[in-house]
């Protein structure tokens, strides 16, 4: 799929702010957890661009192939911590919000493994990746992971 247009050129001021928020939120919790959340939400949303980008980023940050491959079956796979499972459950509940009220059952494990502040940070991350998924799928975006990393570094330096 080819992009319908360049969203960064179409709305540069807002996209710069969106990228800034994205980078800041992504740095608010441990990197391995953030990448798992980004990948899982992107899998649910069918966002090839974000799956490609975040699996590459996860590998660069030391994530194992096993944990990346098993992410869609995280409930059955023994390689995730209880904290990661709580985050993945919360990610699925919020990403699939229209399918029912799964957040009610996901909240207890979330509270057991995350402080109130961390819960807000995680929820913001889930919102950010769901937003990126919608931008990428909606506008047919495909970004090379190296180009995305360079863009993030430029925003962080600004």
UniProtKB/TrEMBL annotation:
GO molecular function terms listed in the Swiss-Prot or TrEMBL record: peroxiredoxin activity
Domain Carboxymuconolactone decarboxylase-like stretches: 12-93
A Pfam match: CMD
Top-rank lineage group of the source organism: Bacteria
InterPro entries: AhpD-like, AhpD_core, CMD-like
Keywords associated with the record: Oxidoreductase, Peroxidase
Record-linked Gene3D superfamilies: AhpD-like
PANTHER family in alphabetical order: 4-CARBOXYMUCONOLACTONE DECARBOXYLASE FAMILY PROTEIN (AFU_ORTHOLOGUE AFUA_6G11590) (PTHR34846), CYTOPLASMIC PROTEIN (PTHR34846:SF10)
UniProt-recorded name of the protein: Alkylhydroperoxidase AhpD family core domain-containing protein
